[in-house]
């Protein structure tokens, strides 16, 4: 590979693809909503932190301490929903969204990169044999890797064979006679 850098030819001695990761393997999937998921979670967390810091000031200036118990409960409940329930719900809904998926041919393992609760990337390593497809389609689950639900968009796999291998669709379906009787 030869590229031009201000008129000087520069030769790259790297033999690996820019989509390879030395530890995880070959990049087979990249989620298109990764930045959106990160942005929404960051916005939700930042507004929750802002609410926590502003709460004493609001209570001091609004005089809510002298109102009835019912008004206090409604006020604290509303603030609690926006401060705690929204970020927790967002995390639960998006924790399985795969932002990148790598595959190592030699050992037949996948590494799914997701966001954890503190917005850091988390790697989950699993074998293809650990992939289970849910019997009933679920809204935020494409497959289970061991027991963890994962969400991918099948149309974003550049190579459809990678998706077929991940889901086990490339295996021959040989039915046993006993299974047919059941």
From TrEMBL:
Record organism: Dryoscopus gambensis
Residue stretches spanning the membrane: 42-60, 72-94
Biased composition (Polar residues): 1-17
A GO BP entry: mitochondrial proton-transporting ATP synthase complex assembly
Cited InterPro entries: TMEM70, TMEM70/TMEM186/TMEM223
UniProt record similarity statement: Belongs to the TMEM70 family.
Keywords, in A-Z order: Membrane, Transmembrane, Transmembrane helix
Cellular component GO terms, alphabetical: mitochondrial membrane
Chain intervals for the UniProt region annotation (Disordered): 1-24
Pfam family, one: TMEM70
Protein name (Swiss-Prot/TrEMBL): TMM70 protein
């Amino acid at each position: 590979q030869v590229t031009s850098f201000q008129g000087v030819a520069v030769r790259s001695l790297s033999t690996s693809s820019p989509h390879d990761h030395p530890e995880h393997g070959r990049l087979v999937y990249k989620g298109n909503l990764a930045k959106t998921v990160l942005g929404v979670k960051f916005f939700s967390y930042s507004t929750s932190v802002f609410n926590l810091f502003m709460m004493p000031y609001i209570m001091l200036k609004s005089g809510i301490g002298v109102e009835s118990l019912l008004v206090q409960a409604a006020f604290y409940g509303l603030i609690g929903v926006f401060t705690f329930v929204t970020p927790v719900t967002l995390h639960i809904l998006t924790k399985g969204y795969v932002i990148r998926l790598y595959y190592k041919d030699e050992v037949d393992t996948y590494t799914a990169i997701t966001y954890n609760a503190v917005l850091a990337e988390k790697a989950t390593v699993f074998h293809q044999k650990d992939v289970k497809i849910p019997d009933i389609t679920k809204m935020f689950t494409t497959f289970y890797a061991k027991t963890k639900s994962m969400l991918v968009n099948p149309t974003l796999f550049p190579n459809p064979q990678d998706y077929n291998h991940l889901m086990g669709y490339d295996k021959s379906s040989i039915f046993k006679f006993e299974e047919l009787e059941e």
